[in-house]
Protein backbone atom coordinates (compact mmCIF):
# COMPACT_ATOMS: atom_id res chain seq x y z
CA UNK A 1 0.00 0.00 0.00
CA UNK A 2 3.01 2.30 0.30
CA UNK A 3 3.26 2.24 -3.48
CA UNK A 4 -0.49 2.86 -3.87
CA UNK A 5 -0.37 5.84 -1.50
CA UNK A 6 2.61 7.42 -3.24
CA UNK A 7 1.00 6.80 -6.63
CA UNK A 8 -2.17 8.56 -5.48
CA UNK A 9 -0.09 11.59 -4.43
CA UNK A 10 1.68 11.59 -7.80
CA UNK A 11 -1.65 11.51 -9.60
CA UNK A 12 -2.94 14.29 -7.33
CA UNK A 13 -0.03 16.42 -8.54
CA UNK A 14 -0.91 15.69 -12.17
CA UNK A 15 -4.57 16.43 -11.43
CA UNK A 16 -3.85 19.93 -10.15
CA UNK A 17 -1.59 20.58 -13.15
CA UNK A 18 -4.45 19.56 -15.42
CA UNK A 19 -7.08 21.58 -13.54
CA UNK A 20 -4.81 24.66 -13.25
CA UNK A 21 -6.75 27.52 -11.62
CA UNK A 22 -9.73 25.25 -10.88
CA UNK A 23 -7.54 23.30 -8.43
CA UNK A 24 -7.50 26.35 -6.13
CA UNK A 25 -10.96 25.47 -4.84
CA UNK A 26 -10.42 21.72 -4.31
CA UNK A 27 -9.08 20.03 -1.19
CA UNK A 28 -6.35 17.41 -1.20
CA UNK A 29 -8.72 14.99 0.50
CA UNK A 30 -11.32 15.38 -2.24
CA UNK A 31 -8.69 14.92 -4.94
CA UNK A 32 -7.25 11.75 -3.38
CA UNK A 33 -10.70 10.22 -2.84
CA UNK A 34 -11.70 10.88 -6.46
CA UNK A 35 -8.50 9.25 -7.67
CA UNK A 36 -8.94 6.28 -5.32
CA UNK A 37 -12.36 5.63 -6.77
CA UNK A 38 -11.18 6.23 -10.31
CA UNK A 39 -8.38 3.67 -10.02
CA UNK A 40 -10.38 1.41 -7.73
CA UNK A 41 -7.62 0.90 -5.16
CA UNK A 42 -7.72 -0.04 -1.45
CA UNK A 43 -10.82 -2.16 -1.90
CA UNK A 44 -10.38 -4.60 0.98
CA UNK A 45 -10.78 -3.67 4.65
CA UNK A 46 -7.09 -4.34 5.35
CA UNK A 47 -5.95 -2.25 2.39
CA UNK A 48 -8.25 0.57 3.37
CA UNK A 49 -6.93 0.59 6.96
CA UNK A 50 -3.34 0.78 5.72
CA UNK A 51 -4.23 3.58 3.31
CA UNK A 52 -6.04 5.41 6.11
CA UNK A 53 -2.88 5.10 8.23
CA UNK A 54 -0.89 6.83 5.49
CA UNK A 55 -3.55 9.51 5.19
CA UNK A 56 -3.45 10.03 8.97
CA UNK A 57 0.31 10.42 8.74
CA UNK A 58 -0.24 13.05 6.04
CA UNK A 59 -2.65 14.87 8.35
CA UNK A 60 -0.05 14.66 11.13
CA UNK A 61 2.56 16.26 8.86
CA UNK A 62 0.23 19.15 8.03
CA UNK A 63 -1.67 19.48 11.33
CA UNK A 64 -4.90 19.54 9.42
CA UNK A 65 -7.62 17.37 7.96
CA UNK A 66 -7.14 16.45 4.31
CA UNK A 67 -10.56 17.97 3.67
CA UNK A 68 -9.04 21.38 4.49
CA UNK A 69 -5.65 21.14 2.75
CA UNK A 70 -5.30 22.88 -0.60
CA UNK A 71 -4.82 20.49 -3.53
CA UNK A 72 -3.05 23.29 -5.39
CA UNK A 73 -0.51 24.30 -2.75
CA UNK A 74 -0.43 21.89 0.20
CA UNK A 75 3.13 20.72 -0.58
CA UNK A 76 4.61 24.02 -1.82
CA UNK A 77 7.46 23.71 0.71
CA UNK A 78 8.67 20.30 -0.54
CA UNK A 79 11.24 21.96 -2.79
CA UNK A 80 12.97 23.40 0.28
CA UNK A 81 13.01 20.16 2.27
CA UNK A 82 16.25 19.46 4.10
CA UNK A 83 18.06 16.18 3.60
CA UNK A 84 18.98 13.66 6.28
CA UNK A 85 17.09 11.74 8.92
CA UNK A 86 14.84 13.06 11.64
CA UNK A 87 16.41 13.03 15.06
CA UNK A 88 15.65 13.61 18.72
CA UNK A 89 17.66 15.98 20.89
CA UNK A 90 19.10 14.26 23.94
CA UNK A 91 17.42 15.81 26.95
CA UNK A 92 14.63 17.24 24.83
CA UNK A 93 14.12 20.44 22.87
CA UNK A 94 14.15 22.44 26.10
CA UNK A 95 17.95 22.25 26.10
CA UNK A 96 18.05 24.21 22.84
CA UNK A 97 15.55 26.74 24.17
CA UNK A 98 17.51 27.24 27.39
CA UNK A 99 20.72 27.75 25.44
CA UNK A 100 19.09 30.38 23.23
CA UNK A 101 17.63 32.16 26.28
CA UNK A 102 20.93 32.26 28.16
CA UNK A 103 21.42 35.78 29.44
CA UNK A 104 18.06 36.96 28.10
CA UNK A 105 15.41 38.03 30.65
CA UNK A 106 12.19 36.07 30.15
CA UNK A 107 9.01 37.17 31.93
CA UNK A 108 6.25 34.65 32.52
CA UNK A 109 2.51 35.07 33.10
CA UNK A 110 2.47 38.30 31.09
CA UNK A 111 -0.44 37.66 28.73
CA UNK A 112 -0.45 40.27 25.99
CA UNK A 113 -3.82 41.89 25.37
CA UNK A 114 -3.03 44.91 23.20
CA UNK A 115 -0.16 46.17 21.02
CA UNK A 116 0.03 49.82 19.98
CA UNK A 117 2.61 50.93 17.46
CA UNK A 118 3.49 54.14 15.65
CA UNK A 119 6.19 56.74 15.09
CA UNK A 120 7.02 56.90 18.80
CA UNK A 121 7.61 53.15 19.13
CA UNK A 122 5.61 50.23 20.50
CA UNK A 123 3.54 49.86 23.67
CA UNK A 124 2.55 46.37 24.79
CA UNK A 125 -0.27 46.06 27.33
CA UNK A 126 -0.53 42.86 29.35
CA UNK A 127 -3.13 41.60 31.79
CA UNK A 128 -3.02 43.62 34.97
CA UNK A 129 -2.62 46.91 33.07
CA UNK A 130 1.17 46.66 32.97
CA UNK A 131 2.72 48.35 29.92
CA UNK A 132 6.03 47.58 28.23
CA UNK A 133 7.48 50.18 25.87
CA UNK A 134 10.10 49.66 23.17
CA UNK A 135 11.36 51.07 19.89
CA UNK A 136 10.32 47.87 18.13
CA UNK A 137 8.59 44.59 19.00
CA UNK A 138 8.72 41.06 17.62
CA UNK A 139 5.39 39.26 17.63
CA UNK A 140 5.69 35.46 17.76
CA UNK A 141 2.22 34.50 18.93
CA UNK A 142 0.80 31.41 17.18
CA UNK A 143 -1.36 31.85 14.11
CA UNK A 144 -4.32 30.52 16.09
CA UNK A 145 -4.08 33.46 18.49
CA UNK A 146 -3.85 35.93 15.60
CA UNK A 147 -6.95 34.34 14.10
CA UNK A 148 -8.87 34.62 17.37
CA UNK A 149 -8.28 38.35 17.69
CA UNK A 150 -7.49 38.00 21.39
CA UNK A 151 -4.51 40.32 20.87
CA UNK A 152 -5.68 43.74 19.69
CA UNK A 153 -3.48 45.85 17.44
CA UNK A 154 -3.70 49.63 17.28
CA UNK A 155 -3.73 50.66 14.54
CA UNK A 156 -5.22 47.54 13.02
CA UNK A 157 -2.85 45.35 11.04
CA UNK A 158 -2.72 45.97 7.27
CA UNK A 159 -5.62 44.47 5.33
CA UNK A 160 -3.35 42.14 3.35
CA UNK A 161 -1.94 40.66 6.55
CA UNK A 162 -5.40 40.23 8.06
CA UNK A 163 -6.57 38.40 4.93
CA UNK A 164 -3.52 36.13 4.98
CA UNK A 165 -4.17 35.33 8.64
CA UNK A 166 -7.74 34.40 7.74
CA UNK A 167 -6.81 32.31 4.67
CA UNK A 168 -4.08 30.15 6.17
CA UNK A 169 -5.11 27.06 8.09
CA UNK A 170 -4.09 26.34 11.66
CA UNK A 171 -4.68 22.73 12.55
CA UNK A 172 -4.32 20.36 15.43
CA UNK A 173 -1.99 17.61 16.55
CA UNK A 174 -2.26 16.23 20.07
CA UNK A 175 -0.07 13.86 22.02
CA UNK A 176 -0.26 11.51 24.96
CA UNK A 177 3.03 11.27 26.85
CA UNK A 178 3.49 8.28 29.18
CA UNK A 179 6.34 7.33 31.49
CA UNK A 180 6.49 3.60 32.24
CA UNK A 181 8.46 1.77 34.92
CA UNK A 182 10.48 0.06 32.19
CA UNK A 183 10.72 -0.30 28.42
CA UNK A 184 8.43 -3.12 27.30
CA UNK A 185 8.57 -2.38 23.56
CA UNK A 186 11.38 -3.16 21.14
CA UNK A 187 14.28 -0.95 22.23
CA UNK A 188 15.80 -0.96 18.75
CA UNK A 189 12.94 0.94 17.13
CA UNK A 190 12.05 4.61 17.42
CA UNK A 191 8.48 4.37 16.12
CA UNK A 192 5.68 1.90 15.56
CA UNK A 193 2.16 2.33 14.22
CA UNK A 194 -1.39 1.23 14.84
CA UNK A 195 -4.26 0.74 12.36
CA UNK A 196 -7.81 1.94 13.12
CA UNK A 197 -10.95 0.37 11.72
CA UNK A 198 -13.01 3.56 12.02
CA UNK A 199 -12.07 5.98 9.23
CA UNK A 200 -13.06 9.02 11.31
CA UNK A 201 -10.59 7.84 13.96
CA UNK A 202 -7.76 6.93 11.62
CA UNK A 203 -5.52 9.49 13.32
CA UNK A 204 -6.21 8.30 16.88
CA UNK A 205 -2.97 6.94 18.40
CA UNK A 206 -1.92 5.90 14.90
CA UNK A 207 1.78 6.40 15.65
CA UNK A 208 3.96 5.91 18.74
CA UNK A 209 7.36 7.53 19.33
CA UNK A 210 9.89 6.01 21.70
CA UNK A 211 11.93 8.56 23.66
CA UNK A 212 13.76 6.17 25.97
CA UNK A 213 17.12 6.77 24.25
CA UNK A 214 17.06 10.54 24.78
CA UNK A 215 14.85 11.17 27.82
CA UNK A 216 16.59 9.05 30.41
CA UNK A 217 13.40 7.06 31.06
CA UNK A 218 10.87 4.71 29.49
CA UNK A 219 8.88 7.42 27.70
CA UNK A 220 6.37 6.65 24.97
CA UNK A 221 4.45 9.29 22.99
CA UNK A 222 1.19 8.54 21.14
CA UNK A 223 0.11 10.91 18.36
CA UNK A 224 -3.45 11.98 17.58
CA UNK A 225 -4.05 13.68 14.20
CA UNK A 226 -6.87 14.83 11.91
CA UNK A 227 -10.47 14.66 13.06
CA UNK A 228 -9.44 12.45 15.97
CA UNK A 229 -7.28 15.28 17.37
CA UNK A 230 -10.34 17.49 17.73
CA UNK A 231 -12.46 14.77 19.32
CA UNK A 232 -9.54 13.90 21.60
CA UNK A 233 -9.87 17.21 23.47
CA UNK A 234 -13.46 16.39 24.42
CA UNK A 235 -12.53 13.16 26.20
CA UNK A 236 -11.49 12.88 29.84
CA UNK A 237 -7.71 12.24 30.13
CA UNK A 238 -8.29 9.16 32.30
CA UNK A 239 -10.45 7.63 29.57
CA UNK A 240 -7.82 8.55 26.99
CA UNK A 241 -5.01 6.83 28.92
CA UNK A 242 -7.15 3.72 29.33
CA UNK A 243 -7.79 3.69 25.57
CA UNK A 244 -4.06 3.99 24.77
CA UNK A 245 -3.22 1.14 27.16
CA UNK A 246 -5.85 -1.06 25.51
CA UNK A 247 -4.19 -0.42 22.12
CA UNK A 248 -0.72 -1.20 23.49
CA UNK A 249 -1.99 -4.38 25.13
CA UNK A 250 -3.60 -5.35 21.83
CA UNK A 251 -0.22 -4.95 20.10
CA UNK A 252 2.07 -6.58 22.70
CA UNK A 253 -0.29 -8.96 24.54
CA UNK A 254 -0.32 -11.53 21.70
CA UNK A 255 3.52 -11.44 21.85
CA UNK A 256 3.46 -12.42 25.52
CA UNK A 257 4.55 -8.96 26.68
CA UNK A 258 2.90 -7.45 29.74
CA UNK A 259 2.09 -3.75 29.40
CA UNK A 260 2.46 -2.02 32.79
CA UNK A 261 0.47 1.00 33.90
CA UNK A 262 2.29 4.29 33.38
CA UNK A 263 3.73 5.96 36.46
CA UNK A 264 3.07 9.36 34.92
CA UNK A 265 1.08 10.62 31.93
CA UNK A 266 0.06 13.85 30.24
CA UNK A 267 -2.38 14.74 27.46
CA UNK A 268 -1.98 17.86 25.35
CA UNK A 269 -4.92 20.11 24.59
CA UNK A 270 -3.42 22.55 22.08
CA UNK A 271 -6.76 23.45 20.54
CA UNK A 272 -8.20 24.54 23.88
CA UNK A 273 -5.09 26.35 25.08
CA UNK A 274 -5.89 30.10 24.78
CA UNK A 275 -2.19 30.85 24.22
CA UNK A 276 -2.04 28.52 21.19
CA UNK A 277 -5.50 27.59 19.88
CA UNK A 278 -3.94 24.95 17.66
CA UNK A 279 -0.65 23.28 16.83
CA UNK A 280 0.83 24.56 13.57
CA UNK A 281 -0.11 25.96 10.20
CA UNK A 282 -1.02 24.50 6.84
CA UNK A 283 -2.16 25.81 3.48
CA UNK A 284 -5.91 25.66 3.48
CA UNK A 285 -8.12 25.70 0.40
CA UNK A 286 -7.99 29.26 -0.95
CA UNK A 287 -4.57 29.97 0.53
CA UNK A 288 -1.05 29.69 -0.90
CA UNK A 289 2.60 29.91 0.10
CA UNK A 290 2.48 33.66 -0.55
CA UNK A 291 0.43 34.06 2.63
CA UNK A 292 3.42 32.92 4.69
CA UNK A 293 5.45 35.73 3.13
CA UNK A 294 2.71 38.26 3.91
CA UNK A 295 2.65 37.16 7.55
CA UNK A 296 6.42 37.65 7.67
CA UNK A 297 6.21 41.29 6.54
CA UNK A 298 7.01 43.88 9.18
CA UNK A 299 4.72 46.85 9.77
CA UNK A 300 6.24 50.35 9.64
CA UNK A 301 9.60 48.95 10.79
CA UNK A 302 8.08 48.90 14.28
CA UNK A 303 6.23 45.60 14.45
CA UNK A 304 7.93 42.40 13.30
CA UNK A 305 6.59 38.84 13.00
CA UNK A 306 8.25 35.46 13.48
CA UNK A 307 7.15 31.87 13.99
CA UNK A 308 6.61 28.79 11.86
CA UNK A 309 3.63 30.42 10.13
CA UNK A 310 5.92 33.15 8.78
CA UNK A 311 8.39 30.77 7.13
CA UNK A 312 7.33 29.81 3.61
CA UNK A 313 10.20 27.36 3.15
CA UNK A 314 9.86 25.49 6.47
CA UNK A 315 6.36 25.98 7.89
CA UNK A 316 5.01 23.69 10.60
CA UNK A 317 8.52 22.89 11.85
CA UNK A 318 10.65 23.80 14.84
CA UNK A 319 13.61 24.71 12.65
CA UNK A 320 11.30 26.90 10.56
CA UNK A 321 10.34 28.85 13.68
CA UNK A 322 13.99 29.13 14.75
CA UNK A 323 15.11 30.36 11.33
CA UNK A 324 12.30 32.92 11.25
CA UNK A 325 13.57 34.31 14.54
CA UNK A 326 17.07 34.71 13.14
CA UNK A 327 15.60 36.35 10.04
CA UNK A 328 13.68 38.90 12.09
CA UNK A 329 16.65 39.58 14.37
CA UNK A 330 18.57 40.60 11.26
CA UNK A 331 15.69 42.78 10.04
CA UNK A 332 15.33 44.46 13.43
CA UNK A 333 19.04 45.21 13.53
CA UNK A 334 18.93 46.78 10.06
CA UNK A 335 15.87 48.83 11.00
CA UNK A 336 17.54 49.97 14.21
CA UNK A 337 20.72 51.00 12.39
CA UNK A 338 18.65 52.81 9.78
CA UNK A 339 16.69 54.62 12.49
CA UNK A 340 19.91 55.73 14.20
CA UNK A 341 21.22 56.91 10.85
CA UNK A 342 17.99 58.80 10.19
CA UNK A 343 18.22 60.40 13.64
CA UNK A 344 21.78 61.51 12.94
CA UNK A 345 20.62 63.02 9.64
CA UNK A 346 17.76 64.76 11.45
CA UNK A 347 20.14 66.11 14.11
CA UNK A 348 22.52 67.33 11.41
CA UNK A 349 19.69 69.00 9.49
CA UNK A 350 18.46 70.60 12.71
CA UNK A 351 21.97 71.84 13.42
CA UNK A 352 22.29 73.18 9.88
CA UNK A 353 18.96 74.98 10.20
CA UNK A 354 20.27 76.60 13.36
CA UNK A 355 23.51 77.58 11.60
CA UNK A 356 21.51 78.94 8.67
CA UNK A 357 19.80 81.41 10.96
CA UNK A 358 23.07 82.28 12.69
CA UNK A 359 24.79 82.95 9.35
CA UNK A 360 22.27 85.66 8.56
CA UNK A 361 22.58 87.13 12.06
CA UNK A 362 26.38 87.44 12.22
CA UNK A 363 26.47 89.63 9.11
CA UNK A 364 24.10 92.06 10.85
CA UNK A 365 27.18 93.25 12.81
CA UNK A 366 30.04 93.18 10.27
CA UNK A 367 33.67 93.67 11.27
CA UNK A 368 34.49 95.24 7.90
CA UNK A 369 32.52 96.28 4.83
CA UNK A 370 33.10 98.10 1.55
CA UNK A 371 31.25 98.06 -1.74
CA UNK A 372 29.33 94.83 -2.06
CA UNK A 373 31.63 93.07 0.45
CA UNK A 374 30.82 92.40 4.11
CA UNK A 375 33.26 90.61 6.47
CA UNK A 376 33.10 88.89 9.84
CA UNK A 377 36.16 87.41 11.56
CA UNK A 378 37.13 85.04 14.33
CA UNK A 379 39.56 87.15 16.36
CA UNK A 380 40.02 88.47 19.86
CA UNK A 381 42.33 91.39 19.12
CA UNK A 382 42.72 93.48 15.99
CA UNK A 383 46.37 92.41 15.66
CA UNK A 384 45.35 88.92 14.51
CA UNK A 385 45.80 89.43 10.77
CA UNK A 386 45.65 85.69 9.98
CA UNK A 387 42.34 85.31 11.80
CA UNK A 388 39.91 83.41 9.57
CA UNK A 389 36.58 84.86 8.62
CA UNK A 390 33.75 84.92 6.14
CA UNK A 391 32.99 87.36 3.37
CA UNK A 392 29.53 87.86 1.92
CA UNK A 393 29.27 89.38 -1.56
CA UNK A 394 25.91 90.86 -2.52
CA UNK A 395 25.01 90.51 -6.19
CA UNK A 396 21.89 90.99 -8.31
CA UNK A 397 20.19 88.66 -10.70
CA UNK A 398 19.48 90.20 -14.12
CA UNK A 399 16.87 89.21 -16.65
CA UNK A 400 17.05 90.05 -20.37
CA UNK A 401 13.67 90.96 -21.79
CA UNK A 402 12.83 91.79 -25.45
CA UNK A 403 12.47 95.51 -26.18
CA UNK A 404 8.93 96.62 -26.92
CA UNK A 405 10.11 98.28 -30.15
CA UNK A 406 12.44 95.63 -31.50
CA UNK A 407 10.04 94.74 -34.35
CA UNK A 408 9.38 98.36 -35.41
CA UNK A 409 11.10 99.46 -38.64
CA UNK A 410 12.72 102.87 -39.06
CA UNK A 411 16.12 104.46 -38.85
CA UNK A 412 15.82 105.55 -35.21
CA UNK A 413 14.02 102.43 -34.01
CA UNK A 414 16.59 100.07 -35.57
CA UNK A 415 19.32 101.68 -33.47
CA UNK A 416 17.54 100.74 -30.20
CA UNK A 417 18.77 97.63 -28.39
CA UNK A 418 16.71 94.50 -28.98
CA UNK A 419 16.72 93.65 -25.27
CA UNK A 420 16.91 95.46 -21.99
CA UNK A 421 18.40 94.37 -18.63
CA UNK A 422 16.12 94.40 -15.59
CA UNK A 423 17.52 94.15 -12.05
CA UNK A 424 15.94 91.36 -10.06
CA UNK A 425 16.28 90.26 -6.41
CA UNK A 426 19.69 90.21 -4.76
CA UNK A 427 21.56 87.03 -3.86
CA UNK A 428 24.71 86.31 -1.88
CA UNK A 429 27.92 84.39 -2.42
CA UNK A 430 30.26 83.53 0.42
CA UNK A 431 33.92 82.63 0.92
CA UNK A 432 36.32 81.82 3.73
CA UNK A 433 38.97 84.53 3.96
CA UNK A 434 41.57 85.91 6.39
CA UNK A 435 41.77 89.50 7.72
CA UNK A 436 45.01 89.98 5.77
CA UNK A 437 43.35 88.92 2.50
CA UNK A 438 40.42 91.24 3.23
CA UNK A 439 42.88 94.14 3.61
CA UNK A 440 44.44 93.31 0.23
CA UNK A 441 40.99 93.08 -1.33
CA UNK A 442 39.99 96.50 -0.03
CA UNK A 443 42.76 98.06 -2.17
CA UNK A 444 40.93 97.10 -5.38
CA UNK A 445 39.52 99.80 -7.66
CA UNK A 446 35.96 98.48 -7.84
CA UNK A 447 33.85 95.45 -6.93
CA UNK A 448 34.36 93.78 -10.32
CA UNK A 449 38.16 93.90 -10.01
CA UNK A 450 37.93 92.81 -6.38
CA UNK A 451 35.95 89.69 -7.30
CA UNK A 452 38.51 88.87 -10.00
CA UNK A 453 41.39 89.41 -7.53
CA UNK A 454 39.61 87.28 -4.91
CA UNK A 455 39.10 84.31 -7.21
CA UNK A 456 42.17 84.45 -9.48
CA UNK A 457 44.95 85.97 -7.36
CA UNK A 458 43.92 84.78 -3.91
CA UNK A 459 42.43 81.50 -5.20
CA UNK A 460 39.40 81.78 -2.96
CA UNK A 461 36.41 79.59 -3.81
CA UNK A 462 32.97 81.22 -3.73
CA UNK A 463 30.13 79.22 -2.20
CA UNK A 464 26.39 79.32 -1.95
CA UNK A 465 24.37 79.60 1.25
CA UNK A 466 23.94 75.87 1.98
CA UNK A 467 27.56 74.98 1.23
CA UNK A 468 28.76 77.78 3.51
CA UNK A 469 26.57 76.52 6.37
CA UNK A 470 27.86 73.00 5.83
CA UNK A 471 31.57 73.60 5.20
CA UNK A 472 31.89 76.66 7.43
CA UNK A 473 29.83 75.46 10.40
CA UNK A 474 32.83 75.24 12.75
CA UNK A 475 34.10 78.67 11.61
CA UNK A 476 30.66 80.19 12.22
CA UNK A 477 30.69 78.77 15.75
CA UNK A 478 34.20 80.16 16.27
CA UNK A 479 33.15 83.62 15.05
CA UNK A 480 30.26 83.62 17.52
CA UNK A 481 32.54 82.56 20.38
CA UNK A 482 35.25 85.16 19.68
CA UNK A 483 32.61 87.85 19.21
CA UNK A 484 31.27 87.12 22.69
CA UNK A 485 34.84 87.16 24.04
CA UNK A 486 35.48 90.57 22.46
CA UNK A 487 32.31 91.95 24.00
CA UNK A 488 33.36 90.70 27.44
CA UNK A 489 36.78 92.36 27.04
CA UNK A 490 35.11 95.59 25.99
CA UNK A 491 32.84 95.51 29.02
CA UNK A 492 35.84 95.00 31.28
CA UNK A 493 37.55 98.06 29.73
CA UNK A 494 34.41 100.17 30.09
CA UNK A 495 34.05 99.33 33.77
CA UNK A 496 37.75 99.57 34.60
CA UNK A 497 38.23 101.99 37.53
CA UNK A 498 41.15 104.43 37.04
CA UNK A 499 43.71 104.63 39.83
UniProtKB/TrEMBL annotation:
InterPro entries attached to this UniProt entry: Amino_oxidase, FAD/NAD-bd_sf, Flavin_monoamine_oxidase
Q: What molecular functions are annotated in GO for this chain?
A: flavin adenine dinucleotide binding; spermine oxidase activity
Q: Name one GO biological process term.
A: thermospermine catabolic process
Any Pfam family: Amino_oxidase
Question: Amine oxidase domain: from which residue to which, for each copy?
Answer: 24-332
Family assignment? Belongs to the flavin monoamine oxidase family.
Mind telling me what this protein is named?
A: Amine oxidase domain-containing protein
Amino acid sequence: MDLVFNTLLDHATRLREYLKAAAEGISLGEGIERLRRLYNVAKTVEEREVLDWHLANLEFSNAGCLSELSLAHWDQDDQYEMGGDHCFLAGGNARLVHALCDGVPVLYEKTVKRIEYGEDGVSIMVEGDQVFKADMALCTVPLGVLKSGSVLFEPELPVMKLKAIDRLGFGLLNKVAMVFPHVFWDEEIDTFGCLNKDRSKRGEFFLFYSYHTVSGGAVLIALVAGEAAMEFEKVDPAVTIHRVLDILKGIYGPKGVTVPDPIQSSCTRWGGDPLCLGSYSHIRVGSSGADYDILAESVDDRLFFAGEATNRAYPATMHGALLSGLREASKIRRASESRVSDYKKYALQKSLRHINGVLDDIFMEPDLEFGRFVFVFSYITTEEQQAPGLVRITLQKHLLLPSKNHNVKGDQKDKEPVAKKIDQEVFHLYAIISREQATELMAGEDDKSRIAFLCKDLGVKLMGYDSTCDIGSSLISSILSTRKARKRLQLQKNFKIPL
